[in-house]
Amino acid sequence: MVLPRTDEPETRDVAGIDTIVLHCTAMPDWNVWETARYHTGPNHISPDGCPSIAYAYFVEPDGLLYRCLPHEIRSWHVGPWNERSIGVCMAYEAGDEPPPREQLKAAVDICADLARKLGLSAERVMGHRELEGTGFVIENGERVQRKECPGSAVDMSEFRHSVAAAIERPGGPGVMEA
Ligand SMILES: [Zn+2]
Fold first, then answer.
1. By CB neighbour count within 10 A (0-12 exposed, 13-18 middle, 19+ buried), where does 102 fall?
2. In this structure, are residues 33 and 59 in contact, taking their beta carbons and an 8 Å threshold?
3. Which terminus of the chain has fewer Cβ atoms in its 10 Å neighbourhood, N or C?
4. Cβ–Cβ contacts within 10 Å for residue 75, how many?
5. What's this model's pTM, rounded to 2 decimal places?
6. In angstroms, what is the span from residue 21 Cα to ligand 1's centroid?
7. What is the rounded average pLDDT of the residues 85-90?
């Protein structure tokens, strides 16, 4: 199965990846196909559409995991951090309720698997909202929050703690290509 793409996506050196970014769709019931169609059509990131879906991995509410992009594709998910990061997105509307347990577990597992493969610590797993220049900006010395992504009910310290524990566990998640 092939997701829609507009152009040849830009490539990069995988050795330069030092950050894993957790996102949410923030839309009710969007799956990986709807997300890819949105990203490659006119959207909030670019009026001409992005070259590809913005996320390398996509996690359904039941924990089903899609691999959407090879790591050498430089996709457009976090502005100034695109070159050095890889995006993992949960199909999750955000709001007061945290994501389902199965989905969080799958997100933790893929982040841990990526951290192991890329030689990164759990501290390099960040929520989109934690990244300066996209999640927040500093204006006149003040922090201005721009994003809640991956949702205010997702505690990133707790998430990193779970990733650190999963890095220690042998084995990795099963991945479906999309
Ligand atoms: Zn995001």
1. middle
2. no
3. N
4. 22
5. 0.93
6. 8
7. 98
Q: What separation in Å is there between the alpha carbon of 132 and the centre of ligand 1?
A: 13
Give the number of other Cβ atoms within 10 Å of residue 39's Cβ: 26
- Token code pair at residue 72: 């050498």
- Dump strand ranges (E) for the chain: 10-11, 19-24, 57-59, 65-67, 73-74, 85-90, 125-127, 136-139, 142-145, 176-177
pLDDT category, 171, cuts 50, 70, 90? low
Distance separating alpha carbons of residues 92 and 101, to the nearest angstrom: 12
Domain boundaries, the chain: 10-177
CA 129–ligand 1 middle distance (angstroms): 7
CA 22 to chain centre: 4
